[in-house]
Amino acid sequence: MPSTIGMLNMIESCMDIILGFNEEEEKASFFLCDCCVELISKHYLKSKINGWDPKNSKGNFKLFKDILDEVKKYAYHNERIKHRKICEYKGVFLDRRNKRNQLMHDSSSAAFSINYRDCYKSIHDLLKYGELLFENSFTSLMTTEFIIKKRIISALADNNDGTSNQTKINRIFDRLSFRTGGAGLTTNEMAISTTDNRVRAFIISHLKDEIERALNSEGIA
User: Fold this and answer.
1) Confidence class for position 161, pLDDT limits 50, 70, 90
2) Rounded Cα gap, residues 7 and 26, in angstroms
3) Are the C-beta atoms of 199 and 207 separated by less than 8 Å?
């Protein structure tokens, strides 16, 4: 079972896929998020319950639903303040697991029901779930680069206020794109639109202070 830092690395892979920094199809991030929810839940139970076993009394690995039920039960008895939110997440995560299974077994009907916002929301909820379960021991391990990606993902997951957070984020990258001379791009490549993912990845990796100020300026928390 991965450590907390190992889980954060997996989550960052989800973010890189959906932000386009990884060449995998965006739906891969949806699948990977689903796996991360299960791993985080198991990690939580193992860290809280001495001798917790991922297998049931028959020697079979516990079902996803049963693991979420155990998280909910432990929180009810020991961390009541988290219980209501865990119950909400359980329903969301089970719906996503069903959608993932549908996509795996009948892609013709399910593929069209997963869009970019579904992927952004799945990562956003995964991050919030990790923060809820592990609190500071989870957030304290996030790098500056990770937090920047997290802020962008959260903004894209929440686009219901009548203004386009996507437009704000595009504007930020547009403003900072002139600083990408060190990205190893040729002159012709630099002429490509600032939506080019290598440019954006470079900005997040090398212009952390600038992009944090820009996110603050645009009101992206």
Assistant:
1) low
2) 19
3) no
For CA atoms 66, 67, 68, 70, give the dihedral sign. Answer: positive
User: Across-strand partners of 61?
Assistant: 55
Domain map (residue ranges) of the chain: 4-143, 159-217
Token pair for 171:
């504007």
- This prediction has a pTM of 0.86
Tokens 């929440």: give the residue.
Answer: 158
Assess contact for 198 and 206: CB atoms under 8 A. Answer: no
**Tokens 């962008």 found at:** 152
Q: Is the pLDDT of residue 193 over 90?
A: no
**Which tokens in the block code for residue 166?**
């996507």
CB-side exposure of 185: number of CA atoms within 13 Å? Answer: 22
Among candidate residues 44, 197, 218, 12, the one with its CA nearest the CA of residue 123: 12
Other beta carbons within 10 angstroms of residue 102's beta carbon come to 15
User: Residue 8: what residue type?
Assistant: L
Among 122, 201, 186, smallest CA distance to 156 is for: 122
| Structure-token match 């490549």, residue found | 189
